[in-house]
Design goal:
Elements (H helix, E strand, L loop, with lengths): L1 H8 L2 H11 L2 H59 L5 H78 L6 H26 L5 H10 L9 H14 L6 H10 L3
Helix pairs in contact: 3-4
Length: 255
């Protein structure tokens, strides 16, 4: 309960992220494989220990067997010396009896070592079976993990494409393109507004000011041709009464 309380105390986005990680099948499978590999390492360590005990028991068996044989040979040699008169027969029998006791002790150790050896062999067989099963299980999960990762990658890619096409992902490329298109339309509308302002008819005041600023006293295009046409019109039509214009020119000092 305390674990879920800690999750609920987080922000909603962070809580969802934590839960997603907890439920991620790929991460869960990887964690399971790591745990199985830890179990495999422990099983191999146990196998090595059991194997060492078995080897020691086997060596004890061989040594006890050899010592038992040696004591038996010594007992026979003592009896032979008693029969041959090289020592008193009672003494030979006493020593031979002691040698046979040592033989029995060796045979007893041989039986104990054999019991340990056989028990360890059963344990070795059981541990080896567990190791083989763990290795097979790990191999199966590792193969499944490869497939699971591929499926998860494909699912995430498909989900991302579907979210983009559905327009539910505000940070997707499609959403960004739509925002850019809208921005371009706004820029185009603003440019059109400035163009309309520039194309409106000029007032008389604006024309006069523009003429003064641009130095309109200069000659117009085809000025010579215009002057010739004006002279021709002046000869063919009676001169208008322009006394007011003449008076204005005289006042301004214009010939």
């Amino acid at each position: 309960m305390s674990f879920f309380k800690r999750i609920l105390s987080l922000g909603q986005a962070e809580a969802n992220s934590v839960l997603d990680k907890l439920e991620d099948p790929v991460k869960m499978t990887e964690q399971g494989i790591r745990e199985l590999q830890d179990d495999l390492i422990k099983s191999k360590e146990a196998f090595a220990q059991v194997k060492a005990i078995s080897i020691t028991a086997q060596k004890d068996m061989e040594r006890a067997k050899m010592e038992a044989r040696d004591w038996e040979v010594k007992a026979m040699s003592l009896l032979q010396q008693g029969q041959q008169g090289r020592m008193a027969m009672p003494e030979a029998e006493r020593l031979a009896s002691e040698a046979l006791k040592r033989k029995d002790e060796c045979l007893k150790r041989f039986g104990q070592a054999m019991s340990i050896f056989e028990g360890q062999q059963q344990t070795i067989s059981r541990v080896q079976t567990n190791i083989d099963r763990l290795q097979a299980t790990i191999g199966g999960y590792q193969n499944e993990l490869v497939t699971l990762k591929a499926r998860a990658t494909s699912a995430r890619a498909t989900q991302k494409i579907d979210r983009q096409l559905a327009g539910v992902d505000s940070s997707s490329t499609l959403a960004m393109i739509e925002r850019m298109k809208e921005k371009v339309r706004d820029e185009e509308s603003l440019a059109q507004a400035y163009q309309d302002m520039a194309d409106r008819p000029k007032s008389v005041e604006e024309e006069i000011n523009q003429a003064l600023l641009s130095g309109s006293s200069g000659t117009l295009p085809h000025q010579a041709e215009l002057n010739a046409m004006k002279q021709k019109l002046a000869l063919s039509e009676p001169a208008p009464n322009n006394d007011a214009l003449v008076a204005l020119k005289a006042k301004m000092g214009i010939e």
